[in-house]
């Protein structure tokens, strides 16, 4: 897995050395020697990772990182700070500035590449979400109900060392809601709920922490959970394996309480951002297949579902019925009472349809005053019976508009069609339903007419 990496260091020899190592592993490298240039390059070149030295004249690594994370163009780019060997204070300050990871000098090549690969995987996920969000924006789907949640979250601590687990919970309890599990099976069940971060002991006595991490990463409900593994500082093999499995961050024993708190904030903040993007994506996907006035599905969604049901029927499955609706004299409602009143009638009519069909049926608004209900596993007799029930209910009581000041009597016409042999198509089925609807309107309206295949 390759990536484009921005290397920032004021020492030319350090830059050249890193460039040589990264290029040898087929990474694309760009470089600069100061924070101001780094900000410009990050915004214009959009690298996948920034390797940023802490000690630089003028704007140091902390301030550069802080500005990268404050800019909407660059906040999604992982930043790895390069610190001194005993840079405990640097790590905490860097985490508070928004750093995603750390490397210590002298650089360990194996550790460096493991962390780069781990962050590259994360960046690919974020990039895909951002690209889909941008696609939705270009399509004009700009509405969103999503808001970024606060930093505090629910933290699952998985550790059979009761003293260590209690200490972690105590440290995180001031900002988050910790929950301790000592059994991996119980932890898996808990992690499927509302959890924002998992801190697990990679060297637990009673279970394999890395196996649990792998299971969490592969589970559909837990694969996006940030994982922090507690490791022994001299257990190099386990640390590398943790990063390879997909653990987001590692914390060495003995646990530094300030570093633990800072790393938890970083991981939860990152999860909040990815959740925000996913929520926006889900909302925009819903907008793409939903009629905004009535809340029913639109023609696009109906077409896809009907095609799938027709294919199933052609392979020997049960027949599919379609009801095509039209509100009688709807233009007169708009002309007499105005389009606002017409919209109120459409919304109420959609409610009356939806409350008179089965849970498996698909009511849709296909345009104007035209509606369709797709009914899986339904023969002609049942379809006609349901259509007649909807007709009676839709016109049984007046429609209230203008806050109830006006009462309108509304009737509907319905065409019914049911899928035929294996050569039948969605287009032909809808056409037969439309023909039945047309006949109903031509013969007096306020009636149901069925058309056989």
Summarize the structure.
With about 450 residues, this protein is of the alpha/beta class. Helix content is about 50%, strand content about 20%.
How far apart are the first and last residues' alpha carbons, in Å?
Answer: 55 Å
Largest beta-sheet details: 5 strands, parallel
Q: Taking all residues together, what is the mean pLDDT? A: 88
**Would you count the extended β strands for me?**
17
What general form does the structure show?
elongated
- Gyration radius, in Å: 30 Å
- Count of individual helical segments: 15
Oligomerization? single chain
* SS content category: alpha/beta
Question: Could you please describe the fold and organization of this structure?
Answer:
The chain has 453 residues and is of the alpha/beta class. Helix content is 48%, strand content 19%. It contains 15 helices and 17 strands. The protein has a five-stranded parallel β-sheet, sandwiched between helices. A five-stranded parallel β-sheet has the order 7-6-8-9-10, sandwiched between helices. The protein has a five-stranded mixed β-sheet with strand order 12-13-11-16-17, sandwiched between helices. The model has no long low-confidence stretch (mean pLDDT 88).
List the helices and strands and how they pair.
Layout: E1 4-8, H1 12-24, E2 28-32, H2 35-45, E3 49-53, H3 61-70, E4 79-83, H4 88-97, E5 101-104, H5 109-138, E6 154-158, H6 162-172, E7 177-181, H7 184-191, E8 197-201, H8 209-218, E9 227-231, H9 236-245, E10 249-252, H10 257-288, H11 299-314, E11 321-327, H12 330-337, H13 339-354, E12 362-367, E13 370-375, H14 380-396, E14 399-401, E15 406-408, E16 412-418, H15 426-442, E17 448-451
Parallel strand pairs: 1-2, 1-3, 3-4, 4-5, 6-7, 6-8, 8-9, 9-10, 16-17
Antiparallel strand pairs: 11-13, 11-16, 12-13, 14-15
Helix pairs in contact: 2-3, 4-10, 5-10, 8-9, 12-13
């Amino acid at each position: 897995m390759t990536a484009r990496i921005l290397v920032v260091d004021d020492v030319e020899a350090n830059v050249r050395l890193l460039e040589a190592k990264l290029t040898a592993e087929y990474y694309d490298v760009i470089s600069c020697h100061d924070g101001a240039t780094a900000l410009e390059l990050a915004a214009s070149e959009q690298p996948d990772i920034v390797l940023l030295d802490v000690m630089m004249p003028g704007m140091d690594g902390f301030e550069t990182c802080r500005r990268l994370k404050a800019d909407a163009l660059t906040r999604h780019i992982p930043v790895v700070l390069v610190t001194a060997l005993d840079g405990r204070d640097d790590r905490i300050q860097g985490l508070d500035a928004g750093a995603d990871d750390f490397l210590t000098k002298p650089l360990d090549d194996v550790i460096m590449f493991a962390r780069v690969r781990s962050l590259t995987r994360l960046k690919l996920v974020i990039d895909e979400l951002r690209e889909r969000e941008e696609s939705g924006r270009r399509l004009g789907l700009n509405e969103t109900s999503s808001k970024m949640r606060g930093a505090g979250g629910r933290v699952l601590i998985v550790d059979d060392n009761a003293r260590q687990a209690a200490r972690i919970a105590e440290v995180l309890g001031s900002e988050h809601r910790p929950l301790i599990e000592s059994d991996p099976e119980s932890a898996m069940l808990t992690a499927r709920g509302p959890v924002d971060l998992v801190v697990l002991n990679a060297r637990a006595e009673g279970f394999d922490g890395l196996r649990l991490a792998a299971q969490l990463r592969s589970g559909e409900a837990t694969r996006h959970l940030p994982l922090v593994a507690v490791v022994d500082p001299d257990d190099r093999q386990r640390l590398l394996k943790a990063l390879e499995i997909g653990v987001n961050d590692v914390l060495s024993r003995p646990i530094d309480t300030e570093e633990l708190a800072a790393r938890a904030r970083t991981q939860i903040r990152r999860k909040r951002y990815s959740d925000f993007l996913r929520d926006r994506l889900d909302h925009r996907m819903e907008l793409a297949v939903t009629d905004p006035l009535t809340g029913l599905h639109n023609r696009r969604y109906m077409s896809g579902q009907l095609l799938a049901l027709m294919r199933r029927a052609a392979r020997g499955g049960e027949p599919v019925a379609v009801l095509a609706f039209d509100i009688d004299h709807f233009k007169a409602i708009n002309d007499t009472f105005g389009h606002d009143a017409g919209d109120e009638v459409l919304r109420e009519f959609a409610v009356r349809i939806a409350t008179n069909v089965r849970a498996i049926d698909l009511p849709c608004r296909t345009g104007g005053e035209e509606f369709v209900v797709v009914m899986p596993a339904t023969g002609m007799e049942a379809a006609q019976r349901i259509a007649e029930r909807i007709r009676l209910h839709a016109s049984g009581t007046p429609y209230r508009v203008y806050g109830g000041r006006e009462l309108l009597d509304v009737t509907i016409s319905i065409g019914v069609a049911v899928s035929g042999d294996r050569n039948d198509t969605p287009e032909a089925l809808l056409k037969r339903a439309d023909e039945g609807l047309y006949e109903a309107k031509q013969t007096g309206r306020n009636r149901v007419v069925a058309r056989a295949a």
